Structure to design on (178 residues):
C-alpha cells in the first residue's frame, strides 16, 4: 500500500473530532444565525424564521452580568449554542437556560456537552441552586436529555408559543440542588 492510500484510509477510519465547548464570541454571530435558521433548531426555540446575522450579533452583545453564552465547535464548525441567564434579587439563586444543536449534528452528544458545561458553571461557579427551562411538549429528545441531567417537569404551559401555524404547549422543567 502506498502512502497516499494509507493517508486516505486513515482519514476515512478516523473518528470524528471531539466537541470543544467555549465562550461564544461576536465573531460566532454568523454561524449562530445560520444554525438558528435551520428548521429543526428553530422549531425547538422561540426564534422567528429568517434571523439576520445583525440580529444575532445584537442579541449576543446584550449579555447580562452573571450570564454565560457558549458554543459547541466540532472540527472548526459551530454546531450548537447554549446560554445561562442568572436571575436577580430574591431569585438570585436561580437561572434559566436555553440551548440548541445544529440539525445535522443531533444525537452526537453535543447537547450533553453543552448542558454539562452549563450545569458545572451553575453548580461550581455561580452557586445557582435552581436551574429552569421551558421545552416544547413534542420535543422528546430534549426532554429525555434534560431528565438525564436531573430536570423534572413542574408544569405544562398551554398555548405557550405560536409555531408553524399553530399554538403549542411547553413543559416548564427545573433542576433543584438540595
Amino acid at each position: 500500500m502506498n502512502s497516499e492510500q494509507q493517508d486516505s484510509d486513515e482519514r476515512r477510519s478516523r473518528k470524528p473530532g471531539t466537541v470543544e465547548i467555549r465562550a461564544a464570541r461576536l465573531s460566532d454571530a454568523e454561524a449562530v444565525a445560520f444554525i438558528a435558521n435551520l428548521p429543526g433548531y428553530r422549531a425547538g426555540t422561540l426564534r422567528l424564521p429568517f434571523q439576520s446575522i445583525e440580529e444575532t450579533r445584537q442579541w449576543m452583545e446584550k449579555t447580562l452580568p452573571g450570564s454565560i453564552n457558549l458554543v459547541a465547535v466540532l472540527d472548526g464548525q459551530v454546531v450548537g449554542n447554549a446560554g445561562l441567564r442568572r436571575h436577580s434579587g430574591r431569585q438570585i439563586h436561580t437561572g434559566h437556560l436555553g440551548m440548541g444543536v445544529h440539525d445535522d449534528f443531533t444525537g452526537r452528544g453535543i447537547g450533553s456537552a453543552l448542558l454539562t458545561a452549563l450545569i458545572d458553571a451553575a453548580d461550581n461557579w455561580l452557586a445557582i441552586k435552581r436551574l429552569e427551562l421551558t421545552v416544547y411538549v413534542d420535543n422528546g429528545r430534549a426532554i429525555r436529555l434534560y431528565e438525564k441531567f436531573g430536570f423534572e417537569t413542574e408544569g405544562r404551559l398551554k398555548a405557550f408559543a405560536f409555531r408553524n401555524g399553530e399554538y403549542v404547549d411547553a413543559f416548564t422543567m427545573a433542576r433543584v440542588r438540595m
